[in-house]
From TrEMBL, chain A:
InterPro entries: ABC_transp_permease. Keywords: Cell membrane, Membrane, Transmembrane, Transmembrane helix. GO terms for molecular function: transmembrane transporter activity. This is Ribose ABC transporter. Coiled coil: none annotated. PANTHER family: ABC TRANSPORTER PERMEASE PROTEIN YPHD-RELATED-RELATED. Pfam families: BPD_transp_2. GO terms for cellular component: plasma membrane. It comes from Zhengella mangrovi. It is a multi-pass membrane protein. It is found in: Cell membrane.
UniProtKB/TrEMBL annotation, chain B:
PANTHER family: ABC TRANSPORTER PERMEASE PROTEIN YPHD-RELATED, ABC TRANSPORTER PERMEASE PROTEIN YPHD-RELATED-RELATED. InterPro entries: ABC_transp_permease. It is a multi-pass membrane protein. This is Ribose ABC transporter permease. The chain crosses the membrane at residues 12-32, 44-64, 94-116, 122-142, 163-185, 213-231, 251-282, 294-314. It is found in: Cell membrane. Keywords: Cell inner membrane, Cell membrane, Membrane, Transmembrane, Transmembrane helix, Transport. One of its GO terms (cellular component) is plasma membrane. Pfam families: BPD_transp_2 (PF02653). It comes from Zhengella mangrovi.
Length: 333, 324
């Protein structure tokens, strides 16, 4: 196996090693420290873990393609909240009163449409003005959150539709509905990134934008499509989550962008663009959720999880750099 | 259109666009509501912007040197909680220097990681945002912090006191702005900050120690954050442990609004102060005009995008991006 391939394996494989380490650590530590008698590696517990990873996970999968592009999206948390409000509020609109339970697909469509539109606004601004995606989405993060608050003020928006709740709480083949969504998005994104022209272009644009332009890729529309995609996924994440909970606070989704970016970076995707993998992001999402659950399991304060995640994020960055420096030195000799 | 941007008026608008926009806003709000230019109102706006402003001063150094600091919000929560906690334990005279020392240690850690280890500042400060948040929650045990004897302490002077009719937070903000403005514009260190942000490689070849300069910018930033935490703690004499949450982005918005480029190498303290004031006056003006509080976020969004867009449009000489 040549050097570059080995390095890639190491880079994208590391996250699975980390997950294995977490599983062993929390199982063993749980034996001695846990307050409850429950085993950590319990099937129900793991199924719950997948379900809880779904909201951040779906967004993180979308963030991967944005970051492979060399862009970033800080507005996903606000998009998530606004789509959730549209989802729950539209079910009570008098226009749809005669629809009965058929209002559900209509509201879903409206919520997803909201996400796509908000993403498209970001994408169009990035494309047409040439302002850096970091600034554009930093601005829209404030702006979209403003819209969220203007909708109902500081009041929560609530609407429970029991048909919907039953659907969201159901499980099929022993797997919860949100987990199915997470898996479906993961497979779809994996297919998009590894088996389609659009996926190949995403790597090309992130690696060298000039070269991509010269190769005939229409970079502007490409970026626009990706922002619409992450808007769609942020909305989908909201649809999956709020179908079950039925109530959205205007602060919901805050810091989601940070969690999503953390998952993507843990999975080995570079901020500078051009490299990254959907499967590893999936690993990053699972690793973060394992950490949250595991720390709770061994009786640590839930607050510590922030501390640990922060330290791990910086450690990963450091290790990644050391690995790259080493790789470059080997190339020289 | 292209001619407009290279003409005198377009150039002026692009170079000093932020000042022009500021002036237009002030005129607009004054026409809409005569109370806007009331000295009390203006004083109130500056006073409530002071905490954000103090933080923005430090972040200006970091941004000019070509880095980012997303950790200032959670670091401010940390300083506020720490100083309130120590106030009752060891008294205000010792609590303040102790809090400054602890905050500076955090700044030094970031400076070491970004400066000497050359790690990406976005991710490092993102990690520190999370880590310091966890630290604050662990330190406070998840509880809010309050000073026991709120009446009998002189500690409130920083946030609530007045000297010759001027609120102390404003004086601290202006004094710090003047001091840091001189450091940035008139000292060799300030020139090094610009050099490192403008062209890091060239700066290294001309004998500037990049790592040391970057380290210093994060120390300055954390010192400003500690000052902001002191003002916050002293103003309210009690605090939630999430008091600074989300402020990192507002701070960054103010700095960008002031015209600092995220690529580094440009920006001034004066312009950052203008950026801070614009945010404050827009918020206040929209309220006086009768718009609801949260509309300011939408307006801020539009203004940030327009400000940066006009800036780069002037630099490339055309309005629309050349991306195909």
């Amino acid at each position: 196996m040549d050097n570059a391939k080995l390095k890639n394996r190491l880079k994208y494989g590391a996250i699975w090693g980390f997950i294995a380490f977490e599983l062993i650590f929390f199982t063993v530590a749980g034996e001695y420290l846990s307050l409850s008698d429950k085993v950590f590696l319990d099937l129900d517990n793991m199924m719950l873990l997948f379900k809880q990873s779904a909201p951040i996970g779906i967004i993180a999968l979308g963030m991967t393609i944005i970051m492979i592009n060399g862009n970033i999206d800080l507005s996903v948390g606000a998009t998530f909240a606004l789509s959730a409000i549209v989802l729950l509020d539209s079910m009570t609109w008098p226009v749809f009163a005669g629809l009965g339970d058929w209002v559900i697909p209509v509201s879903w469509l409206l919520a997803l449409l909201t996400g796509v539109v908000l993403g498209a606004v970001n994408g169009l601004i990035v494309w047409k003005t040439g302002v850096d995606a970091f600034i554009v989405t930093l601005g829209s993060m404030l702006g979209y959150r403003g819209l969220v608050f203007m909708y109902h003020g500081e009041q929560p928006t609530s609407h429970l539709n029991w048909t919907l709740v039953d659907f969201a709480e159901a499980s099929f083949l022993g797997i919860h509905t949100p987990t199915w969504f997470l898996l479906a998005v993961a497979v779809a994104m994996w297919f998009l990134m590894t088996r389609t022209v659009h996926g190949r272009n995403a790597y090309a644009v992130g690696d060298n934008r000039e070269a991509a332009v010269n190769a005939g890729i229409r970079v502007g529309p490409h970026i626009l499509v990706n922002f619409m995609l992450i808007g769609f996924l942020a909305a989908l994440s909201a649809v999956v989550f709020y179908s079950e909970s039925g109530s959205v606070n205007p602060n919901d989704g805050e810091l989601y962008e940070l969690w999503a970016i953390t998952a993507v970076v843990l999975g080995g995707t570079k901020l500078t663009g051009g490299s990254g993998s959907i499967v590893s992001t999936f690993g990053g999402v699972i690793a973060i959720q394992l950490l949250r659950k595991g720390l709770g399991h061994i009786g640590a304060d839930t607050e510590t999880v922030n501390l640990v995640i922060g330290v791990i994020l910086i450690a990963v960055l450091f290790l990644d750099r050391q690995l790259n420096i080493k790789g470059r030195e080997e190339l020289k000799t | 259109m292209a001619r407009f941007w290279s003409s005198g008026l377009g150039g002026l608008l692009a170079r000093q666009g932020i000042l022009v926009a500021f002036a237009l806003f002030m005129i607009g709000f004054t026409l809409a509501n005569h109370r806007f230019l009331d000295p009390d109102n203006i004083m109130g706006v500056v006073r409530s912007s002071a905490i954000l402003g103090v933080m923005a001063l430090g972040v200006t150094f970091v941004v000019i040197s070509g880095n980012l600091d997303l950790s200032v919000g959670s670091m401010m929560s940390f300083s506020t909680i720490v100083v309130l906690d120590l106030h009752d334990r060891i008294g205000p005279a010792l609590a303040i220097p102790a809090m400054f020392a602890m905050t500076l240690v955090l700044g030094a850690i970031i400076g070491f990681l970004v400066g000497y280890l050359k790690l990406n500042s976005l991710i490092v400060t993102l990690g520190m945002l999370s880590a310091i948040h966890g630290l604050t929650l662990t330190y406070s045990g998840g509880k809010n912090m309050d000073i026991a004897d709120k009446e009998g302490t002189w500690f409130s002077v920083f946030g609530q006191g007045e000297i010759l009719g001027f609120p102390v937070p404003i004086l601290i903000f202006l004094a710090l702005a003047a001091f840091l403005g001189i450091v940035l514009a008139r000292t060799p260190f300030g020139r090094k900050v610009y050099a490192v942000g403008g062209n890091g490689v060239a700066a290294t070849f001309s004998g500037i120690r990049r790592a040391r300069v970057v380290f210093a910018t994060y120390l300055i930033s954390s010192a400003c954050v500690a000052t902001a935490g002191l003002l916050q703690a002293s103003r309210s004499l009690g605090s939630q442990n999430t008091v600074g949450q989300g402020m990192e982005l507002e701070v960054l918005a103010a700095v960008i609004l002031g015209g600092a480029s995220l690529l580094g190498g440009s920006g001034t303290i004066f312009k950052t102060v203008i950026g801070v004031l614009i945010l404050g006056f827009i918020q206040n003006g929209l309220l006086l005009v009768g718009l609801q509080f949260y509309a300011q976020y939408v307006v801020t969004w539009i203004i940030i995008i327009l400000a940066v867009w006009l800036d780069i449009a002037a630099k490339r000489g055309r309005l629309w991006s050349p991306i195909a």
